[in-house]
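#random but structural
TW: two for the price of one
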Amino acid sequence: MSGWVSLSRASEPISASRMEKGVASSYRMPVRLEVGWQIAEPRGVPGARVSLWADLVLPAVEVCMSLRTRGLAPGPPKEDVNRYVCLVPLGTRVARRERRVCAAPPGSSLTMRVADDSGRPLTTDCPVGPTDGSTRHANLTFTTPVDVYAWVAPSVGARAQLAVRGELSFKRGISLQFSAHAASGLNSPPMTSPTQVRLVGPGATLFSVERKLDEGCPAEAWVTAGFVDEWGHELSDRCLLGRYSLP
């Protein structure tokens, strides 16, 4: 018999192939926003013209698979084999470039902050600065809920292989909000409705290309899988995918 030889779990993520078994997790991912901007006064239009470049910088997400062969082959028990596959490389960037005119009454001060698609602020207000055309930069950090998935399938090549693919989805949208405040202080209420610049929409998904692992993969093993970050910290509980057997 070739492939998975144990029963599927009803709670697995849906896969396009019956040969794949999946693991999923939901958690709050720490994100860094690198943002630069220029503010100038638009000609003939009241407000402020914003030229914006923003990058969401993501941490790494890896799937860790433990391959257990004890009791499946004759001879003394062997140590479990741990294999790691990177789904989201460290420093992955989601870029946005935008030009927008923001409502800004004369004498007001502009601020910006990160918010989700419900309008809930994810960072505190950051002063934008005067409309003199100079370039400014800021780094803002926050967390946002994500779903991460990985699918594993045994396959036969020159030797035993495991094919792994995955994806990461943003559960909520992320936007930059620009607001005009009275010059008397940033703590005053906004003078106008915030101008929204969407950085990523709800459900936006990053896909990981399929990787095939053959080095160190036994011909038969129990597979347990979960997710870790770049430091090896667990992002989810490990779950048993099943046992595979390859000729």
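TW: number two ↓
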Amino acid sequence: MRSPVSRFRKLIAQKLGVCPFCMRTSAVGSLVLWTLRVGVHAVRPSPRFELLLLVPAVALSLLFLSHLVAYMARAGVRVRRHRALALQLGGTPPDVGRREFLITVLRAGGYAVFISLFGDIVFSQVTTCKAPHDPAPTNNIYAEASSEEVARMFYVEEAFRVCERNCATLTCEGGGVCLQNDGVTPVAEEPKCQPKVGGGYYCTGKVKQCACACQQCTGEHRPGETSPDPGPGDTGPGGLSGGFGTGSDEVEAQANARQNARDKCDSFCRWFEDCQPQVCKRDAEPVFGAIKSWPTATGRAAWIKIKRCRCTCQD
């Protein structure tokens, strides 16, 4: 059983810098109280009344500054984390020097101040995370593979990726991460598939409707995309939606693809930040889907679909 001190520390870790309502309340409250104090002092000075206004004004100001510093610190951690994840997944993220890193953190702080003071105006014009959601105009799908059958399978995966990117731009007012709903397939056009010049097939189309939902760490999630994860041949749609592996034979290639899928679920679970001071981690074997294998110049390659990642809060 946790002590009151540990529960209080957990509450601070979960709320400080991550609670939009708390940040907005402390910022607006301190601004109103400081304005009242200045007005009282200018119109009709009253030391006692000014002191009554000063105490909560200072308290709310310190609370907001704590939120702001925590938010900027978390922004810095996210920059480092996303770079590490992109490198882990085979991407080539841009170099982030000290100057660029500082500018990114300061921008995050400026954004937090702006949203805290003018959040009601801004969020009244921002779409919240909910279904159904129209992803247009960023709703084009393109998938290619060595055969039309595999290209059509990747077309469905790409539809999920389109929705995952669009859902990620929406806001979760109660916290959490906005993701494409696990159990709902995006509504997309019938793919138009054609042979590629030089061999293989490609399919194109558009997503008509996504089903976005706010999700927390604990539970099963359909993983999304962080960065392109290209490989030789039919590597699949990349990102975190599948595991890729190579080997001297099919058994080794599939085993490496499964391990790569486990590593990607590890990365995916670490996205969630609602467990603090704990960490969101993978706690079980991923739920695998279809696996495809094909020959390469040095042996075999395999790609396995990740249907679900199982995450939970852990120390």
